[in-house]
Amino acid sequence: MRQYLIVDDNRAFAENLGEIVRDLGDEVTVAADGEQALAHAKKHRFDAMVTDMRMPLMGGAELVHHVRRIDPGLAAIVVTAYVRDNDLDAARREGLLAALPKPVPIGRLLELLGSARRDGLAVVIEDDTAMSDNLCEALRGRGFAAVTAASVLETERLGPVQPFCALVDSRVPGGPAGEAMRRLAEKYPGLPMLVVTAYHDEPPLPHVGFFSKPFDTRALLDAVERQYQARPRTEA
Fold first, then answer.
1. Across the strands, what pairs with 194?
2. DSSP 104-167
3. Which CATH architecture is the domain 121-230 placed in?
4. Of 96, 102, 115, 220, whose CB count within 10 A is highest?
5. Three-class SS of residue 38?
């Protein structure tokens, strides 16, 4: 049985969603605001959190930020009517499983909750926006969340997240080949890296997989899965 935290100041929506999830056999805790959600996160280990972005006192982005310090492994989904919101960008830098629009597509939300992985955050370093989006969507299909960067400089702006692996293009703007790998190695010592590149030169740092574009997506995801299964486990 999985346990979820639903956070929304619209109590009727939160309770209705909670009933739908409970009918499927899982447990749900409902919080009306960010402070309540943080109190619950300190006491219980949830498999995933769903939060509205616009709430009084503490918005969804701020909530995700604080939850990451209490339970870094918690998968987070935000729902918002404002898809071009600076707060949403801030939340994405913390690593999200998904950002869903309002009105919420319930079927899609239930799929994401059912597949969400604890401690399942990957870093994607890719300057091709379409490729980055495709990689993130492929990861999401396996229940993995992603935080992204499109240049060497952006690797320095990643939030204080705890990824279990990285998918890295060996050549991205802002530095010589392999520089993004070096920056990641400094930021996250020992982080397993899967190189995804259009070039065939040997990456400058140790890596656990090398995938030339165009690559077999399933093979890449299987490699990600192996790193997830081999990750250091957090205590329950």
1. 167, 209
2. --HHHHHHHHHH--TT-EEEEE-S-HHHHHHHHHHHHHTT-EEEEESSHHHHTT--S---SEEE
3. 3-Layer(aba) Sandwich (3.40)
4. 96
5. helix
Q: Are 167 and 126 in contact (CB under 8 A)?
A: yes
**Whole-number average pLDDT of the chain:** 92
What are 168-182's pLDDT values in tens digits? 998 999 999 999 999
Distance CA 144, CA 137 (A): 9
Domain boundaries, the chain: 3-115, 121-230
Q: Tokens 């993130």 appear where?
A: 136
Residues with Cβ within 8 Å of residue 111, at least 6 apart in sequence: none
What's the confidence (pLDDT) of residue 232? 83
The sheet that has 209-212: what strands, in order across it? 145-149, 121-125, 165-168, 193-197, 209-212
Task: Quote the CA–CA distance of 172 and 190 in Å, as a whole number.
Answer: 21
pLDDT in tens, 177-224: 999 999 999 999 999 999 999 888 778 789 999 999 899 999 999 999
Please report, as a single letter, which amino acid is at residue 154: E
Q: What is the largest CA-CA distance in the chain?
A: 56
Q: Examine domains 3-115 and 121-230 and report if their fold is the same.
A: yes
Encoded tokens for 104: 């919420």
**Beta bridge partner(s), residue 49:** 5, 76
Alpha-carbon distance of 206 to 73, in angstroms, equals 25
